Amino acid sequence: MSARGSRPRRLRPVGCLVALAVVALIVVVVILLWFLLAGRLRVPEPGPEPPPKPPISQPATCPDVQMISVPGTWESNSTDDPHNPAANPLSLMLNISGPIQQQFPAERVDVYTVPYVAQFSNPIAIPPDGQESYNNSRSEGTQRMVDMMTERSRECPLTTYVIAGFSQGAVIAGDVAAQIGAGKGPVPADRVLGVTLIADGRRTLDTGPGRAIPIGTPPPGVGAEVALAGLKVPGITMTGPRDGFGALADRTYTICAPGDMICDSPPQALNPVNWIPSVLALVRAVGNPVHALYNGYVVDGNGTTATQWTASWASGLIEGAPRPPHS
């Protein structure tokens, strides 16, 4: 006989285990939803094969040159007018695209500013900051750029291209340029006159074959995506260095100001294992003062700033670009 007032044993541990299992399941579901809602990084499929023999002329509506300008974080939105961007009047890229539009007639060059959400949500902000994730923003910008170039190439097979981007826009422009250089992009490599990337988050210190050419004295750090290679948290996928620019390497340029952690992060210093401090450092880097001052960052002994150099470089390419026949 059991003693009077005795209670069944083993029930309390079982109840605790059930409660812990429920809590664990809830945590797993929350994390999965966090990743799903923040979005994954989407990479466009390889572009179409170029025609075996290009035509001898193109429609009269086609520009001789197509300039693609890709703004940085918080400098665009998904509904901005690509030919008259007004989402952010202080956008750094307007210091480059504006002078080009003023210098050349529309039939010589069409300037297209890629409209995309251009945001960078802090995934650990409480309460949530209400912004789109970096993965979703970068994916949208890349797809918009690829779609535009694909359609332009289809309509205007003899048009040539000048590509420039800043910050998140430099990552996007650089990724598309790398695809083109590998023969997998939306246009053939011989149609691209040149590429300039300002504050590229995937910048490396490599200067060998396939790598971009530095303008100004290159700082000792690397892009944040290289320093944080392998970091993957909800909405933020750090993809590390590119494989190179292939056929475009001899006409791809990179500009990075010392102290700008987007492109000048200490190698291995932002340890992906310590992902919370790394994410916080990355979010702070997007808004650091140095990152916002490329309009005054001098890149040569003549006092030329990064934006002046890029505008002059683009102007020179457009001046010397082919003038295809129109029909």
TrEMBL record:
Family: Belongs to the cutinase family.
InterPro entries linked: AB_hydrolase_fold, Cutinase/axe
Residue spans crossing the bilayer: 14-37
Signal sequence, start to end: none
Coiled coil: none
Organism this protein belongs to: Nocardia bhagyanarayanae
Matches recorded under Gene3D superfamilies: alpha/beta hydrolase
PANTHER family on file: CUTINASE 4, CUTINASE RV1984C-RELATED-RELATED
Alphabetized UniProt keyword annotations: Disulfide bond, Hydrolase, Membrane, Serine esterase, Transmembrane, Transmembrane helix
Protein's name in the database: Cutinase
SMART domains cross-referenced by the UniProt entry: Cutinase
A GO term, aspect molecular function: carboxylic ester hydrolase activity
